[in-house]
């Protein structure tokens, strides 16, 4: 049985956990003091040695990303933190910033020192007023305490409701004051990022993991997790479970173990399908309960670890309805820059609506898969790729359920049974 | 409407946050929204002037992001998450019930100007589903009756406080000012974390 390992979430249960006083009480800002006394390259090496990988979805080694920043180039360098958490199912950075914004600020100080940046930007989604307050206050307090303003500055930049801005180059365009649309790569942000300057873009959880690594050492971090997926991370369990919530555990824990901790699937029901890392990661079913939830394990089983957003759906849920809703989301959030995604997601929605209403034909399933084939790998960015994941995986596992909509002349499920209040006051 | 010298000074300080002025376009849009309640043509023109841009360039940005409203919304703007997980767990039923209860459609505003309604995408609180937002503050674990009570309290002018947020719900304009980066002194209010956020931590303390 894997034991939980709260590091990021270790002090969230203290009433004042978000204040600088609470953070300092738990040795806050000692790691940045230590790092600032180190050679920047040694800090990069330490993060490389720890094995920390990006927690925003792609799992790219964080230290290696930092190492790509050219040195001695006489240019301004920037750190940009991606706090635009909006992948459906993903809900880890928001509670982290609500409960402990200072750990992100300390991580920014360390990362800026390592990549020789004087300026960091935190790009936070705009639909979380109270989290914006907390981070803004934390930045003010870090300035007052002298942690910021002495060579390293942080600006909080608040988004305005566009999922695409979670894509790092779209985020950079947005931060520069344009519509948030992705850029062609190369050049990668490490060479030409914000204002065409060398830029590191990291997820909140990645940067927030750095202070503990500096404080406790690479070996300590290496001691948690699996062979290639090191450390501890936040797994967010939601949906048809008795006790949803955040579980910080070493990489490699399984859904079976997390469900045990959460009191299992909703009483009287059974697991039907789930996402391992948000809606852009192919669906899993009850066959995948023992897949190690690390980068390699999930990938070997045909999906992606993504943001570790474990959305659980029980047998009352219509998979066609679920997939249609996600597809409507991708269609709505497609930025319109590239044709496969802009047009493709629109057609996916039309066909899925027909299927859900029982007015499609079996040939529509082949058409859906063909469209997905033309979007996947042909879109400008990962939004288009992600849009195909729920469709292709649901047809793989639940083809019969799609067909049942056709023979039934509509959806055979009662949506009330899926609600938490099951008709009580619906 | 014209802007006061104080407001112009605030906008100037926003521009100075950035190495390049154009980056200030998003906080400036949030800020003009906090003054008029939505992004007015005057606001667009002022931002264009301040940043030496064409109004079309500012418009292009303002219309890309769904949080910038081009017409007035309610004093309390209610968003019901109808992305898959919340929808399945009750968000669809809540949204349908609120449309009926308020007599408005998606993006509609009640005649008294108090409440507007929108279906929203995933708001990063899935462990608190079904989620309703008001002025982008969290109302966790909602059902049909609690959501109706919430909007009723708004129409009476005594909105219920958010479940994870400040002690009282601020208005749409006030929330927009926070999103523009203005500190309203309420960061210390409210919970540091709700029960689901602490579930794993508490189990760990029990030796799990």
From TrEMBL, chain A:
Belongs to the complex I 51 kDa subunit family. Pfam families: Complex1_51K, NADH_4Fe-4S, SLBB. InterPro entries: NADH-UbQ_OxRdtase_51kDa_CS, NADH-UbQ_OxRdtase_suF, Nuo51_FMN-bd, Nuo51_FMN-bd_sf, Nuop51_4Fe4S-bd, Nuop51_4Fe4S-bd_sf, Soluble_ligand-bd. It comes from freshwater metagenome. This is Unannotated protein. It catalyses: a quinone + NADH + 5 H(+)(in) = a quinol + NAD(+) + 4 H(+)(out). SUPFAM superfamilies: Nqo1 FMN-binding domain-like, Nqo1 middle domain-like, Nqo1C-terminal domain-like. One of its GO terms (molecular function) is quinone binding. Residues 320-365 form the NADH-ubiquinone oxidoreductase 51kDa subunit iron-sulphur binding domain. Keywords: 4Fe-4S, Flavoprotein, FMN, Iron, Iron-sulfur, Metal-binding, NAD, Quinone, Translocase. The keyword Amino-acid biosynthesis does not apply. NCBIfam families: nuoF_fam (TIGR01959), PRK13596.1 (NF010120). Its cofactor is [4Fe-4S] cluster; FMN.
Automatic annotation (TrEMBL), chain B:
CDD domains: TRX_Fd_NuoE. The keyword Metal-binding applies. Its cofactor is [2Fe-2S] cluster. One of its GO terms (molecular function) is 2 iron, 2 sulfur cluster binding. The keyword Chloroplast does not apply. Gene3D superfamilies: Glutaredoxin, NADH-quinone oxidoreductase subunit E. Keywords: 2Fe-2S, Iron, Iron-sulfur, Metal-binding. PANTHER family: NADH DEHYDROGENASE [UBIQUINONE] FLAVOPROTEIN 2, MITOCHONDRIAL, NADH DEHYDROGENASE UBIQUINONE FLAVOPROTEIN 2, MITOCHONDRIAL. Belongs to the complex I 24 kDa subunit family. NCBIfam families: nuoE_fam (TIGR01958), PRK07539.1-1 (NF005721). This is Unannotated protein. The lineage of its organism: unclassified sequences, metagenomes, ecological metagenomes.
């Amino acid at each position: 049985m894997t034991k939980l390992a709260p590091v990021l979430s270790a002090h969230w249960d203290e009433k004042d956990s978000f204040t600088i006083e609470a953070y300092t009480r738990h040795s806050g800002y000692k790691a940045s003091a230590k790092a600032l006394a180190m050679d920047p390259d040694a800090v990069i090496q330490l993060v490389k040695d720890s094995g920390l990988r990006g927690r925003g979805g792609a799992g790219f080694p964080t230290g290696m990303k930092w190492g790509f920043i050219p040195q001695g180039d006489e240019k301004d360098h920037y750190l940009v933190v991606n706090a635009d958490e909006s992948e459906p199912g993903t809900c880890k950075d928001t509670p982290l910033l609500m409960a402990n914004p200072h750990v992100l600020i300390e991580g920014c100080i360390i990362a800026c020192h390592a990549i020789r940046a004087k300026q960091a930007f935190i790009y936070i989604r705009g639909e979380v007023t109270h989290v914006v307050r907390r981070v803004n206050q934390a930045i003010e307090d870090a300035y007052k305490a002298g942690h910021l303003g002495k060579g390293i500055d942080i600006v909080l930049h608040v988004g305005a409701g566009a999922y695409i801005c979670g894509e790092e180059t779209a985020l950079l365009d947005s931060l520069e004051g344009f519509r948030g649309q992705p850029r062609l790569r190369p050049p990668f942000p490490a060479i030409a990022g914000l204002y065409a300057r060398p830029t590191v873009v990291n997820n909140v959880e990645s940067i927030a993991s750095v202070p503990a690594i500096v404080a406790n050492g690479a070996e300590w971090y290496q001691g948690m997790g699996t062979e290639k997926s090191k450390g501890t991370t936040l797994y967010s369990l939601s949906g048809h479970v008795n006790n949803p919530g955040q579980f910080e555990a070493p990489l490699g824990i399984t859904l079976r173990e997390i469900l045990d901790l959460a009191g299992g699937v909703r009483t009287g029901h059974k697991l039907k399908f789930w996402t391992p890392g948000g809606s852009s990661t192919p669906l899993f079913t009850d066959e995948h309960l023992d897949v190690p939830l690390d980068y390699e394990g999930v990938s070997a089983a045909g999906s992606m670890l993504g943001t570790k957003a474990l959305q659980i759906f029980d047998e009352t849920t219509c998979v066609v309805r679920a997939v249609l809703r996600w597809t409507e989301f991708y269609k709505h959030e497609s930025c319109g820059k590239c044709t496969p995604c802009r047009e493709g997601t629109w057609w996916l929605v039309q066909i899925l609506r027909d299927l859900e209403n029982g007015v499609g034909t079996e040939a529509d399933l082949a058409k859906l898969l063909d469209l997905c084939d033309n979007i996947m790998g042909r879109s400008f960015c990962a939004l288009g790729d992600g849009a195909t994941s729920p469709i292709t995986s649901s047809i793989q596992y639940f083809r019969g359920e799609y067909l049942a909509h056709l023979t039934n002349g509509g959806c055979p499920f009662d949506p009330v049974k899926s609600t938490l209040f099951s008709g009580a006051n619906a | 409407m014209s802007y006061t010298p104080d407001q112009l000074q605030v906008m100037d300080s926003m521009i100075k946050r950035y190495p390049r002025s154009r980056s200030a376009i998003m906080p400036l849009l949030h800020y003009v929204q906090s003054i008029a309640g939505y992004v007015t043509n005057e606001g667009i023109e002022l931002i264009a002037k301040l940043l030496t841009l064409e109004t079309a360039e500012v418009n292009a940005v303002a219309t890309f992001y769904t949080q910038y409203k081009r017409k007035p919304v309610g004093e309390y703007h209610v968003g019901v998450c109808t992305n898959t997980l919340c929808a399945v767990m009750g968000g669809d039923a809540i949204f349908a019930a609120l449309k009926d209860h308020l007599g408005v459609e998606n993006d509609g505003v009640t005649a008294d100007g108090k409440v507007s309604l929108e279906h929203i995408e995933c708001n990063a609180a899935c462990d608190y589903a079904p989620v309703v937002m008001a002025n982008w503050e969290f109302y966790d674990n909602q059902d049909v009756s609690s959501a109706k009570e919430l909007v009723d309290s708004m129409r009476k002018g005594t909105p219920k406080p958010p479940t994870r947020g400040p002690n009282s719900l601020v208005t749409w304009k006030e929330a927009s000012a926070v999103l523009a980066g203005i500190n309203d002194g309420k960061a210390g209010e409210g919970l540091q974390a709700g029960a689901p956020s602490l579930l794993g931590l508490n189990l760990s303390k029990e030796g799990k």
